[in-house]
Amino acid sequence: MVDRRREIIVDETPTQQMWRSFSGNPFLVIGVAGFIATAVIGGYRFAKRPKDSPPSLFLIQLRVTAQSVVVGSLGIGMIYGMVDHWILNPKPKRKAIADAENK
Question: Would the CA dihedral through 79, 83, 89, 90 be positive or negative?
Fold first, then answer.
């Protein structure tokens, strides 16, 4: 058993933490890029919206759209990871299980 109190904690800057999480989960980058694109397009459409529509309704719809893009991207990444782990590259059976099947 590992004694967690004796582990050395290396301080990372926020930029290093961001790059580490981006390299570990590339769909996070896609989600963040989709969020930024949604925000830019939403800003443009906010300026061009009809003047009789309430801004609160537009902003609620924009928030839901941005969240859907990010959550959808992460969901697709999770599905891809599960398919890759369980279907495309299944781990070989453990030796104990293989020995039990041979008996």
Answer: positive
At position 2, the amino acid (one-letter code) is V
Q: Which of 19, 78, 69 is nearest to 39 (CA)?
A: 69
Other residues' Cβ atoms within 10 Å of the Cβ of residue 43: 11
Over 90: is that where the pLDDT of 44 sits? yes
> Quick check: 76 and 27 in contact, CB under 8 A?
yes
Q: Where are the alpha helices (DSSP H) in 1-103?
A: 14-24, 26-48, 55-83, 95-102
pTM over 0.70: no
- Phi, psi for 41 (deg, rounded to 5): -65, -40
70 contacts 35 by C-beta, under 8 angstroms:
yes
Residue type, 71: V
